[in-house]
Amino acid sequence: MATLAQLESQIQKLQRRADVLRERKSIEVIAKIRAMMDEFGLTIADLAKAGSGTRKTRGRPAGSGQSAISRKGATKSKLPPKYRDPESGATWSGHARPPAWIKDAPDRSVYLINGAASKNGARKRKSARNAAA
């Protein structure tokens, strides 16, 4: 079995061989490109000009307005807290995943912040009246 030093030596030798092959291949490719440029009368400026117009870009053009992320953040407002942990003072709005301190509570009304229940109750009664009308 080979030692670590032997393997590292082999890796270095293989890397040097790969670099030499890459250099030879790039010289051949450059020669072919120059021959084709001479054949068609192209210059480097022609390549630069052609490359800038043909490449498709993804997404909205730069400077065309707000990005989706900034629009999304600007329209959403933070919800007011509905529940409070009496021990730590941590709050929760009642939306999304419940925090650990209230997750397994059998009755969450114990954690309601004063006024949160009456606001929701008033909202529910109002919508019930609108539905009955």
From TrEMBL:
One Pfam family matching this protein: Histone_HNS
Residue ranges, annotated region (Disordered): 48-104
Residue intervals passing through the bilayer: none
DNA-binding protein H-NS-like C-terminal domain boundaries: 73-113
Subcellular locations according to the entry: Cytoplasm, Nucleoid
Coiled coil (UniProt feature): none
Any single Gene Ontology cellular-component annotation: nucleoid
InterPro entries per UniProt: H-NS_C_dom (IPR027444)
Span of the signal peptide: none
Keyword Heme: no
GO terms, molecular function: DNA binding
DNA-binding recorded as keyword: yes
Domain of life: Bacteria
Family: Belongs to the histone-like protein H-NS family.
Record protein name field: Histone
Species this chain originates from: Caballeronia zhejiangensis
